[in-house]
Design a protein that fits this description.
It is built from 7 helices and 6 strands; from the N terminus they run αββαβαααβββαα. The protein has helices at residues 19-25, 48-58, 72-83, 101-107, 110-125, 161-172, 177-182; strands at residues 27-32, 38-42, 62-66, 130-136, 139-146, 149-152. Strands 1-2-3 form a 3-stranded mixed sheet.
Amino acid sequence: MSAPSAPPGPLTLPPAISREFLLQKGCCPLEIDPRGALVVAVAHTIRDDTLRQIADLYGCAVSVRRVAPDALPVLVERIATRSAPTSGGHPPAGDGAELGWEARDLATQAPVVRFLNLLIRDAVDARASDVHLESTRGGVVARYRVDGVLTPALAPPPDVAPGVISRVKLLADGCSRECRTRGTMGWWT
């Protein structure tokens, strides 16, 4: 097989590979290495035919990287969240004080919920005190504050970003007006 050039952005799943397939087979595509081979994370022994299927779908050779068994579901969740399509739409205009049903619908889509859960889980794992979401011209940027320093975090895919912002606003809806105005809310884990 010929080695393709590395994809322009983060690796995503082809439509033929589902989250369930990856969890059942115990593997997860990670990245394209400098030689053009797809690096696949595995926690246990994996069948050759599974690796051949993945190689065929990505159109390149496959190399295997061992990972801890508890790390595999997190890796699968990351790539599945990045790859999941959303139904489109944009959050409503305005100051966000009153979120309409469109924003609620956008905020409750599975890819949005999975991404925000993953972002919070990663923040807890990094022992972050804060999670910052900032809208920029290039999209939404996510950062964690760890030991007083802002460090880059997994950014939401462009098609999921409006839903992530809407979901955070919905979660903050239970806060006081001051909390929403200040743009902060707290969780204790």
